Amino acid sequence: MRSYFLILILFAGIFGCTQTEPTDTVEINDSDVPDSTTSAPQDTQKPNLDEIPSELIRPTDLKYLGAFRLPDASGGSSWEYSGYAATYYPEGDPEGSDQYPGSIFAVGHDHHQQVSEISIPTPVISSNIEDLNTATTIQEFSDITGNMFGELEIPRAGLAYLPAQENQNNGKLYFSWGQHYEDSANPSFGWSELDISSPETAGPWHLGSFSTYTTNDYMFDIPENWAAENTPGLRLATGRFRDGLWSGRGPALYAYGPYNEGNPPAAGSTLEMVTPLLLYGEQIGTDLYIQSDESMAMDYFAESDEWSGGSWLTTEEKSAVIILGTRGVGNTWYGFSNGVVYPVDGTGDEVYPDVPDWPHDARGWWSDDIEAQILFYDPADLAKVAKGEMKTYEPQPYAIMDLNEYLYDPGYDYERGKMYSLGAATFDRDNGLLYIFERLADEDEKSIVHVWEVD
């Protein structure tokens, strides 16, 4: 196991990220690293909750219900190093008799990138993991992509369920897959059937001409009434944040609907019906790298952030779009976890420091500390972006919710190569239940799922 972690940390340092898929060769190009090597301490001031309009969901509207554990390995994978993509399925587990109907489809081990369907047990509030209930396997792990993406280095994934749209006869699992370093704008999107043992995979497709550094990660459904008014026919939201400045200075979000362009669209085709909702920078042509400056940054932005999940929350009277993940706090720098800065000016006369001893030998973006957080966005702001009334980098979070107090293993753990806290999120809209994956929290580095009720 120690050898595994040494390999994991080595690759995470090279690419400035979190998790790895070993390859035979690695090319390092320091010119690809943004020029900025350090950032000032992040302002810890949060938005004023007293100014939140009554139609918006507040952090205090989220009531913590507890957590549950994930089942044993099945099929071709396990729940170790898991949880980067998930979606709620309202028709799942029809024989379940508790207060938590439906099921969850989620991605398992990072190295395998397979999907399993699990039940939702009653969550338990306890500081002892052994007290938690454990989900059961409904469908074993399977590859829903038909191996269309091949081997991925430090994968990114998105997953979302929608009932039948347009000319479809049944609901689908929509997905995206990418990797930390994208050398070109590869097609990243597709769908599969709900029987994941026979997925009948469709895709892959390009998402317009947008950079894959801003598209192929978290994914969730858009409420039908909001989409009808602001993004007609586009019921899926997808986006990505890549550490550093490659994807802009905050998380991105787009609305799309592949069912409008074929049933299914042709493999390798480009989906043209895409509407940007959030981008902290500017897409120039088909460039992979988003251009930005400090005037386009999300409030409290840090290069070491890791935004990994999202959901569109609704109640009868309130709503919010949330993006969640791991925020870097305090000083931020490119280099090593013990504070040693790695120069990337490209002037040719830099003095490169010695690589520190393990466990501080992972090179990438670091901060003094990390916090698990939820960012709350006003859907009305995203509607203005969709209609061209606001620039994509103008919306700002109206509230921020810290989650560290709920987690079993918050913060860095250098010896385990742990640089993040959260993975995916998914929302049961009918029952107001929000599910969030805490990565590497259980034994054997399995995820744990936390549950909130949106009151």
Structure in words:
By secondary structure, the chain is mainly β. It has helices spanning 2-15, 224-230, 379-386, and strands at residues 38-39, 62-69, 86-89, 103-107, 115-119, 137-142, 155-162, 172-179, 189-192, 202-207, 219-221, 236-238, 253-256, 270-271, 274-278, 306-314, 319-335, 364-377, 399-402, 422-428, 433-438, 448-454. It has one domain (2-454). Strands 1, 16, 17, 18 and 19 form a five-stranded antiparallel β-sheet that branches. A five-stranded mixed β-sheet has the order 7-8-9-10-14, with no helix packed on it. The longest helix has 14 residues, at 2-15. Residues 1-36 have low confidence and may be disordered.
Beta percentage is 25-35%
According to DSSP, the number of beta strands is 22
Distance between the termini: 43 Å
Unreliable spans are 1-36
Q: Please estimate the helix content.
A: under 10%
Q: What is the count of structural domains?
A: 1
Structural class: mainly beta
Largest sheet: 5 strands, antiparallel
Helix/strand order, N-terminal first: HEEEEEEEEEEEHEEEEEEEHEEEE
- The residue-averaged pLDDT reads 90
Spatial shape = globular
Radius of gyration: 21 Å
Number of H/I helices: 3
Task: List the topology elements.
Elements lengths: L1 H14 L22 E2 L22 E8 L16 E4 L13 E5 L7 E5 L17 E6 L12 E8 L9 E8 L9 E4 L9 E6 L11 E3 L2 H7 L5 E3 L14 E4 L13 E2 L2 E5 L27 E9 L4 E17 L28 E14 L1 H8 L12 E4 L19 E7 L4 E6 L9 E7 L1
Parallel strand pairs: 10-14
Antiparallel strand pairs: 1-17, 2-22, 3-4, 4-5, 5-6, 7-8, 8-9, 9-10, 11-12, 12-13, 13-15, 16-17, 17-18, 18-19, 20-21, 21-22
